[in-house]
Amino acid sequence: MSQNNWRLLPQPAEKTVRQLASQLNISPLTATIVAQKGYTTPEAAFGYLQPSIDQLHDPMQLHDMDKVLERLMTAAFEGEKIVVYGDYDLDGVTSTAVMVEALQVLGADVTAYIPNRFQDGYGPNLAAYQRLIEDGAQVIVTVDNGVSGHEAVAYAMSQGVDVIITDHHELAPTLPAAYAIIHPRHPESTYPFQDLSGVGVAFKVAQALLTDGAPVEDKSELPTELLDLVALGEIADMVSLTDENRTLVSWGLKQMAETPRPGVAALLKSAGQLPEQPIISETVSFKMAPRLNAVGRLGDAKLALDLLLTQSPDAATDMATQIEAINAQRQAIVEEVFGAAKQLALSATHANDQVLVVAGENWHQGILGIVASRLVELLHKPVIVLSQIDGTYKGSGRTFGDFDLYAFMGQYRELYTTFGGHASALGLAISPDKLTVLRTQLAEMAPIVLPEKAVTVNMMLPVAQLAPTTYDDIQLMEPFGTGNPQPAFGFETPQIEKAMAMGSTQQHVKLTLTNQIEAVGFNHPDWTAIVAQPQGVSFVATVGLNYFRGQARLQLLLADVSLPDMPENDAHKQFFAQVYKFIYAHQDLNFGQNLDKIAKQLQLTPKDLNIMIQVFIELGFVKIEAGYVKIIPNATQKSLTTSVTYQKFLANR
C-alpha cells in the first residue's frame, strides 16, 4: 500500500494535446489519453475514436478462404448436410451462432453441435464425429476449435466428409489434415491481424460468404446483424481490442443497445441492466459473459446457443430465467471448490511452487478455470487446477501478468493426454502417473521471473477537475479491455470529508470527497485502515457511474490505495490491515493448525500474528471457532489504539 508500484505514463507534449483537442473537438483529458495510447496525429486519433470500415481487412487474405468459400457455397446450393461443430465457452457459442446464421442466409441445410464439456471434452472428439457422420453429416465446420483435433479430423476425411477448421488457438507443431484451415496465424497466411477470437474468425468467414468474397465499400454491405454476437465472444475471450477487433466490438455494442436480439434483451434484463445504463464492454464482462458461460460450465451449452438464436421474446425470457438459476448454482460450486483448492495451495507441500499445480478429487470440472483465476489473484503466480474424474486429471490453467503459461507448460507436452490454449489460459488432461512426473520436473526447474504487479496511472488529477462530463470524455474511448485499458487516474492526498467501511464483513470502503464525489473500493478489507485516518491518503481510481433511484452520479472505483508515511508506531496499522485482509480471505483456513505457516507467509513471527488476532478479538472484529478465525459481520469500527492489547504490543516493540 505505497506508491512504489505506481507507474505514471509519460505525458504527451502540450502541442500534441492542443492539436488533438482542437481538431477533433475533444477535451484535453481525452486528447492526453489518446496520445498516450500512441495516436498522436489527428488522423490516427480519429481512426481510434471512430472505428470505421477502413479498419476491417479483406477476409480473402486468410489462408484457404477461397477454398472454404467455394466449398460452402457448393454445399449450401446443393443441399449437403453441414454441421457447425462449436465449443462450450461463450466465444465458441457465439462462433457457432454466427456460422449457423450466415449459412442459413444462404439457404444451407445446417445444424449446430456444441460438444458437452464432460462427455466430449474440448475440440474435435472422435466419437462425436462418428455419430455426426452416421447421422448424415457431409461437411463439418469447426469454430473456435480444431487445430488440435488430428484424430477426429483424419477419420472424417477418410469417410469422405470434408472438415473445414476455423480457429484462433495456439497452433500445434503439426496441423490436422483437414480440407481447409482458416486461422489468422496460419504459417502460410499473410493476414495482417493475428488477434481475432474464434467468433472473429467465424465472422470473417461469414463476411466472405455473404459478400461473395467481394471487397466491402461501406458498412451497409457487411452482415452487421451478426456483430452483437462478435462483441459478446471477443470481449469474453479477452482478445486485444485493437485493429479490426475494435471496430467489430464497437459496432456490436451499439447494435446491442439499439436493436438487441430477443436473447440479448432478455439476458440484460435478468442480469439487472437498467434501461438508462449504457451497454459497454464492462456490461458484457461482468453481467452477460458469466451467465452465458455458466451454462456450458455446468451442463449443456446448447441452452446458451438457443437463447442467442431465438427470435421469440417469450422463449428468450424463459431461457434467460433458466440461465439465471444456473449461474447462481455455478457461484455456489465455485465457492466450495475454491475453499478446498485454497487449503491445498496454502499448504507446506506447495509453499515453494513457482507454477502452482493443485489437484483434487471430483471437483466440478466446469469451474476449474474460475478457481485458477481466483488463486492467481490471491497468490500472484501462475496456477493450474486439476480434478481427477474417471482416473484422469483434467483442468485449466491461468497465468499471472504477461507470463506465457502456454509456452512454458508446452515444454512438457509429451506428458499430457490433451493440451491446448494460449498464453494466458490453457486446458490439459494428464494421467496420475504422468502428473507425478510433471510435479517432479516443475520442482527441479530453474527459477522463473514473474512480473511485478504494477498499477498504471495515466495522469495525476485534482479532484476539482472531476465533473459529470469526465465520464463522457472517457466513454469516447470505449470499448475498453485487453489492448485498450480503461484510464486510471492518481489522486494525491485529496481532502476526504468522510470515510466508512461497508459490507457484511466490512470488506468494502467508501470515501466521500470534498465535491461529494464518492470513491469506493470493493473486497479490500485492508483498505479500511483509511477509516481511522483518512487524511493523507492517496489513491488510483477509474471513473464510472453509480445508478441509484434513476439518477446517475460520477463515481471513482479504487484500483490502489497508498497510506501516508507514518511514524513507526502508526505504521503498524498497515501490518494489522494486511492481517485483517488475510483473515477475511481465509476464513476456511484453520489458524490453530497452521499458525506458523501463515505467519511465515505474512512475514511475521507466530507471536506477533497471535497478538494481532487477539487485538481483533478484543475490538470485536473477529471470533475464534475451533481454530478458525471468523470475521464478525457489521462490526462497529474502532481505532486500534482503543485496544489494551495493541497498546501493550506497541510498548514492547
TrEMBL record:
Gene Ontology molecular function: exonuclease activity
Annotated ranges, domain DDH: 81-233
Pfam families listed in its UniProt record: DHH, DHHA1, RecJ_OB, ssDNA-exonuc_C
InterPro entries membership: DDH_dom (IPR001667), DHH_sf (IPR038763), DHHA1_dom (IPR003156), RecJ (IPR004610), RecJ_C (IPR018779), RecJ_OB (IPR041122), SSDNA_exonuclease_RecJ (IPR051673)
RecJ OB domain mapped to chain residues: 459-560
Gene3D superfamilies documented for this protein: 3.10.310.30, 3.90.1640.30
Family designation: Belongs to the RecJ family.
Name of this protein: Single-stranded-DNA-specific exonuclease RecJ
Gene that specifies this protein: recJ
